[in-house]
Each structure stands twice: as structure tokens, then as C-alpha cells.
Amino acid sequence: MTTLAERYRAVQDRIDAAAVAAGRDPKDVTLIVVSKFHPAQLVLDLIDLGARDFGENKDQEAGPKSVAVADSLVLAGKPVEHRWHFVGQLQSNKVKSVLRYASAIHSLDRESLLTALAKETAKLQEAKAAAGEAPLTPIDVFIELNLTDDPGRGGIVPANVQEFAQQVLAVPGLNLMGVMGVASLNSPSDSSIAERDFESIQKASFAVRELKPEAKFISAGMSGDFETALNFGATHLRIGTAITGERAY
User: Fold this and answer.
1) What CATH architecture is 4-18+26-244?
2) Which of 19, 82, 134, 194 has a Cα-to-Cα distance from 128 of 20 to 30 A?
3) What is the distance between the alpha carbons of residues 52 and 138, in angstroms, rounded to a whole number?
4) Is 172:124 a contact under the CB 8 Å cutoff?
5) 184: exposed, middle or buried (C-beta count within 10 Å: 0-12, 13-18, 19+)?
6) According to DSSP H, which parts of the chain are helical?
């Protein structure tokens, strides 16, 4: 049975090797450890191992966990800087709560969510101005892509990504980082479909960069396919089970 430290280091080694094989600098890759369904203590253990970025997909779990981690670090006398990434589908009525702790939202997938984010970030900006505080730092966002044939699934169809990106760029409180996608949702075991999907994600990234060259980041790749994702420009890997082990659902 492997330990958390062994799994974390093994994944880091695989990321480094895959990045070099793809002709890329491993330092340009951000590992986001998906900590959902795991306690705050696992996050603290990972911070001790060097992890700094953590992904959650439910506000009702992420909110209390982020507070517990921060409080524990302060009590231990080591307030290590770390970042929370919201990676699941975000309900519009949860935006205010998520903005309290998330450094980045990877699942900006529809106009109604964009409207909610615009409204809440504007309120925060007004509150800071009224209090004479420094302006709000825009929150990082990734446009989630829908790579399936199901129009009811969350996400922006790649053909519409530029149009949606223009709307995102018009919101002062948001910093468009790039795109996010999940490969092989139609056929999880077909590697050729995974490669096709990662290529679609990369093409969507190029389309967004035509509007904002700095929005060059790609959130793609999970435990089973992150090495393939690196071949198609992924910069933010969302890896859970390969590091954390099976979750207690």
C-alpha cells in the first residue's frame, strides 16, 4: 500500500517526465490536487509535502474546508500561501460564497453564471471602494467547454467560445485565464477520442488567445489522462485519485 507522499511524488515525477517529453518546461505546469470528499487534514498533509493548489467541486464542502485549513495553518504558526480552485459546476446562487475563498473558477459554463459573477464582483468592488480599500483583484476564470454531443450538458460549444470569451472580457471583475475541458466523456476508454477532445480544447484555446493573448492557460487532464493532456498544451492538471487515493463517499 502506497503512502500519500509516495503517490504525490510519483505523480510529480510523471508530470515532469511527460512535460519534458512534450518539449515543455515542467515549471509551466500547475498541479491542482482535487481534494473533494477528503478531510481538511489531507490538504494539510499535502501542504507539508509541497502542494499549493487544491480543487473542490461543491461549495458546501469547500467553504468549511478552506476555513479549517486556514485556521489550522495559523494555529500551527505556518500560514502557508495556498490556492483553492473551484472545478465543479457552479450554481449561480453559490457565487457569493465561492468568491470568499476561491482563487480561480474553472467552470464558467453559461451566460447566467457570467451574469451572477459580474453582479457579485461589482458589489465587492463597490464595498472596497466605500471602505477606502485597494481595488478588488479580478478572479481568475476558465471557460468550460462542452465536448459532447449533448446540448444539455454544461459548457460552451467550442464553435461559440470566441463569442462567449468576448462577454467574459467585458466584465472588469474577471480575469480570463483560458479554457477548461474534460476529455472522453462520450467514450472514456477510447484513447483516440481522448486525443481528439484534447485537440479540440487546444484549438479553442487558440481561438481565445486571438482575443486575449495572455489567456493561454488550459485546464485539462485528470488522473487517467494527464500525460496525454500535456501533449496538447494543458497547463493546469486536475488530479485526484492518483494522489489522494480512493475517496470515502
Assistant:
1) Alpha-Beta Barrel (3.20)
2) 82
3) 20
4) no
5) buried
6) 4-21, 40-49, 59-75, 95-98, 111-130, 161-169, 191-211, 226-231, 241-244
Q: Shortest CA distance to 162 belongs to which of 203, 116, 117?
A: 203
Q: What secondary structure letter does DSSP report for 239? A: E
| 88-138 pLDDT tens trace | 999 999 999 999 999 999 999 999 999 999 999 999 999 999 999 999 899
Q: State the average pLDDT over residues 203-231.
A: 97
Tracing cell 485565464 back to the chain, one arrives at 177
For CA atoms 56, 69, 215, 19, give the dihedral sign: negative
Which amino acid does the sequence have at 99? L
C-alpha cell at 243: 494522489
Name all contacts of 39-43 with Cβ < 8 Å and 24+ positions apart. 39/65, 40/65, 40/68, 40/69, 40/72, 42/4, 42/244, 43/69, 43/82
Cell numbers standing for residue 209 = 488567445
10 Å Cβ neighbour count for 40? 17
Mean pLDDT of 26-49: 97
Supply the mean pLDDT for the chain.
Answer: 94
Start-to-end CA span in the chain (Å): 20
Highest mean pLDDT among 65-69, 127-131, 145-149: 65-69
d(CA 190, CA 146): 18
